[in-house]
Amino acid sequence: MSVDPSLVCSYCQQPVQGRDLDFRFKLPDPILEIPEAERSQRVRESGDVVGAEGIGVFVRVMLPVMLTDDFRITYGTWLALTNRGDFDRARRLWHSDEYSSLILEGVIANGIEPWGPPLMTQARATVKDTNQVPYVETIYDESLAAVINHTWPRSWVLSAIPHAAWHSHAH
Fold first, then answer.
1. How far apart are CA 68 and CA 19, in angstroms?
2. Which listed site, 40, 51, 103, 147, has its alpha carbon 20 to 30 Å from 138?
3. Burial 36-74 (b: 16+ CB within 10 A, else e)
4. Local confidence band at 142 (pLDDT 50, 70, 90 cut-offs)
């Protein structure tokens, strides 16, 4: 297994190992813009779904990106649901036997570096594995669709992410 000594896990402080890397956003960017003193009053978290009064509802999704040298990084990001029907359907199906049929349309709600803050573009996410949150399968903006449809230089992508935020896939 390969080790990249320049990447250190923020949990265990050990070098990140493997070729399947994870980067997780704790919250959507619009919620992070709420002053911390107001968050407890305005934000309702329920694991992989979070809502904020006056802002909207967000669902955790995975955004996989292929890198050179046979590496992959998966961003754990958030999809802003653009209509109440999508939220109701997600809530109804999330823990049901029909979860595998869930399709979500929304806006990617985190700035994904190095493609620039904020990515904030329309996307579709579907369930690939019933033990995981949905994966972004389509980004509708043609220029940004390249994020998931192309292989990117490993060093360029990894150098854009703060080293303190890394997690190995095993965590």
1. 10
2. 51
3. eeeeeeeeeeeebbbbbeebbbbbbbbbebebeeebbbb
4. confident
Q: How far is CA 79 from CA 71, 116, 119, 140, 163, in A?
A: 24, 17, 11, 14, 24
CA distances from 60 to 27, 29, 67, 147 (A): 9, 12, 22, 18
Which amino acid, one-letter code, is at 149? Answer: N
10 Å Cβ neighbour count for 131? Answer: 7
| Residue 128 token pair | 């690939």
pLDDT tens digits, 46-103: 789 998 988 999 999 999 999 999 999 999 999 999 888 888 899 899 999 999 999 9
Q: Look up the pTM and report it.
A: 0.84
Give the C-alpha separation, 132 to 62, whole Å. Answer: 9
Q: Could you report the per-residue pLDDT of 17-29, keeping only the tens digit for each? A: 678 888 888 899 9
Which tokens sit at 2? 């390969």
Residue 23, SS3 per DSSP: strand
Structure tokens at 42: 């305005």
Q: Each residue of 90-106: b (16+ CB within 10 Å) or e? A: beebbeeeeeeebebbb
User: Is the CB of residue 15 less than 8 Å from the CB of residue 4?
Assistant: yes
